[in-house]
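pinging the channel bc i need a second pair of eyes. not urgent but kinda urgent?? the chain im working w is below, pasted from the shared doc
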Amino acid sequence: MAQLSYREKRKRWSEALRGIWDGLADKSPGRRAAWKAAIFILVVFFNLYPKPWYFISQVQRFSNSDALVDDAFVEMTTINRTIDSVLRQSEKPDEELQVIERFVYRNIAYEYDWDSWGVLDYWPSAREVWQRKKEDCDGRAILAVSILRSRGHNAVLVGNLNHMWVAVDSVELLGPQRDKSFSSDDEGLKLALPSLESLLRIFASAVAIFPFIRVVCIVLAALILLFHPRREPWHLAGLVSASLAGLYLLKSWGTEFARGAGDAVTPGMLAGLSLIIFALVAALRRRF
């Protein structure tokens, strides 16, 4: 069979997309809205979790996060031996908690879950963290709690939407924050409503740290689905441009705010949100 030329391939793709576009337009408003919602959910899901098996595992791990803590995995003896040697050389033997905190920081390099696992968020077991030697805040906290419990401390996981750390009675380690949306111990998971600051920080991380092309895909999917079934390509191109400009402004704001160098609300952040909202509302000029 002869290979198709680039022009013929482009023509076939164009016809296929036009068929999908027209087929969706022929459905009743209710069914069209349901199809659009389903398509958007799939776009969001596969951009956040291109490896869906990690999502299934993460749901299970979030609901029983204390099961990830393991104070008796094989390498724990070596870990504690190293910590004991540091404590013997210390002039302040009562600094055990700080020594463990420094040990985790030095031995577990910080790496975002997207770089480690290729998904938005994934909580590893203590042994996985130690074997990989790199993780983000949740992996470090899980390992720290495991070490602390192996040494007789009543340590628990504490966190919010943006960060996870460790509480040992009245002492908190690994960069504690004011907002505590959840804690996990042997009694189970305890949840609380997140603060506005936590919501802003997770939003900043989403636009600044998460792969930008995937954020663009999600926003453009929403824009195109809202624009359908209209046929005004130049109008759509203008709305896409406005959305991309808005995302660029949000990324600049998020980069500064996520690292603590910028304000929670800035003119650039407001301008970026305004451009995206304007594009989405303008796309919805004709309803489902």
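so Strands lie at 109-110, 134-135, 155-159, 164-168, 171-173, 182-185, 188-191. and DSSP finds twelve helices and seven strands in the chain. — does that match what u expected or am i reading it wrong
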